[in-house]
Specification:
- The strands form three sheets. A four-stranded mixed β-sheet has the order 3-4-7-8.
- The protein has 21 helices and nine strands.
- With 415 residues, it is α+β, with helices and mostly antiparallel strands.
- This is Nucleotidyltransferase.
- InterPro entries: dGTPase-like (IPR050135), HD/PDEase_dom (IPR003607), HD_assoc_2 (IPR045509), HD_domain (IPR006674).
Length: 415
């Protein structure tokens, strides 16, 4: 193919990119993803975790193309799935999920899913580049409805199996990020039987199902996913760094700065925050040079009563409430504003990865019946009950306040 490009990927090997996929890869919006780290600030704990949303998006497209072939999609369906897979992260802001918790409070119209839809339908030119904003034009030129692609990003499609292939219990997005993140962090937890999984997925009565012979491969994927969230994505040091940088951005926004942060790349937002005066700059510099706060409290869900969980969930959904609790904790131990951060993993997971507790994968049995995975194997239910990550509440501060916080945090939060 004359206009094809060969891209060499560290995870999937050589991939041939051509046609509308190549045209989309060349757009400023897609090239922007080179400058957004897949795992945010995880490189502070795992030095190899410098891979980007760009390569993950290409990997997801590659797996979508392979899966489309395995299950026998028509040419039009295959192309729609491939485009959706390629563009599924096009709306991500700097450092991926790091700032996800404050989007709703400060820039309600620009969470990464809605932003992705707006980029695909041409409502926003996120880069400001003169060649930007052409994604809908490219799609329409190749007979693809931009609105259909935008809907697919949310797992919505006229044919359910297409949505499930991109955003379901076993989907190409998860398959790529589990393998890729394990590879670049150097941990073994994300290793899955990719080849087997691609072979045992099939379409039955309009839905994506797993052949009974592939149940073990799915179990392996669910275990890998759960362990990666405990060990990598919600590593307490990673969450402390992300919490510190989030507070730096919150202070900047409160002072009227960086309201277009959602358009920025990683380097840009870090430079802008460091250049500000006061708390924003101080916290950013601490993150950049890894002078991180220490974990004072790492409490499990079992240590919290139902009312306490509800109270924390309510606070975490309301940025102002969470900030008030952080100020109260700081005041109680003699710390300054910004020196105590509070994280609540249960709420964070609802925002960043609602699929984590998803075990509703359907299994096609040899006798032709379809059963949910939870009925076929007890492991699915066990994983659903498993607390991921191990901590539910994290409170961090400079080391000199750690002991006082450990002694009195519950009284401050729940009195």
């Amino acid at each position: 193919m004359k206009d094809a490009k060969i891209i060499h990927d560290g995870v999937h090997g050589s991939m041939k990119v051509a046609g509308p996929i190549l045209e989309l890869v060349k757009t400023p919006e897609f090239q922007r993803l080179r400058h957004i780290r897949q795992l945010g600030l995880a490189y502070l704990v795992y030095p190899g975790a410098n891979h980007s949303r760009f390569e993950h998006s290409l990997g997801t497209w590659h797996l979508a193309k392979r899966l489309a072939s395995e299950v026998g999609l028509s040419e039009d369906e295959s192309l729609l799935l491939q485009v959706g897979a390629l563009l599924h992260d096009i709306g991500h802001g700097p450092l991926s999920h790091t700032f996800e918790g404050i989007y709703r409070h400060y820039v309600k119209e620009h969470d990464h899913m809605r932003l992705g839809q707006d980029i695909i339908t041409g409502k926003i030119n996120i880069t400001g580049d003169e060649d930007g904003g052409r994604i809908p034009e490219i799609l329409e030129k190749h007979g693809i409805d931009p609105r259909e692609v935008a809907d697919l990003l949310l797992g919505k499609a006229e044919k359910p199996y297409l949505g499930q292939m991109l955003h379901g219990g076993v989907d190409v997005d998860q398959l790529d990020y589990l393998i890729r993140d394990a590879y670049y962090t150097g941990v073994a937890y994300g290793i899955i039987d990719l080849e087997r999984l691609l072979k045992v997925l099939e379409i039955h009565n309009g839905e994506l199902v797993v052949d009974e012979k592939g149940v073990e491969a799915v179990e392996g994927m669910l275990v890998a996913r759960s362990l990666m969230y405990s060990r990598v994505y919600f590593h307490h040091t990673v969450k402390i760094a992300e919490g510190m940088l989030t507070r730096a951005l919150e202070f900047a926004l409160e002072e009227g700065h960086l309201w277009d942060f959602w358009k920025m790349t990683d380097c840009r937002v870090l430079v802008e925050l460091e250049d500000l005066e006061g708390l924003s700059s101080e916290l950013t510099r601490r993150v950049l040079y890894r002078k991180l706060y220490k974990a004072a409290v790492l409490a499990s869900a079992e240590e919290l009563g139902p009312d306490e969980k509800r109270e924390l969930l309510s606070a975490y959904r309301n940025v102002k409430k969470r900030q008030e609790l952080e100020r109260a904790l700081a005041e109680a131990v003699g710390a300054s504003e910004g020196e105590v951060i509070l994280e609540f993993s249960i709420a964070d997971l609802m925002v960043s990865e609602p699929r984590l507790k998803e075990t509703g994968i359907k299994v096609l049995l040899e006798n032709g019946e379809v059963q949910p995975l939870s009925k076929v194997t007890p492991l699915a239910n066990a994983l659903k009950r498993r607390q991921t990550p191990r901590w539910a509440v994290l409170i961090a501060s400079p080391e000199k306040y750690v002991d006082k916080l450990r002694e009195g945090w519950k009284e401050v939060l729940f009195s």
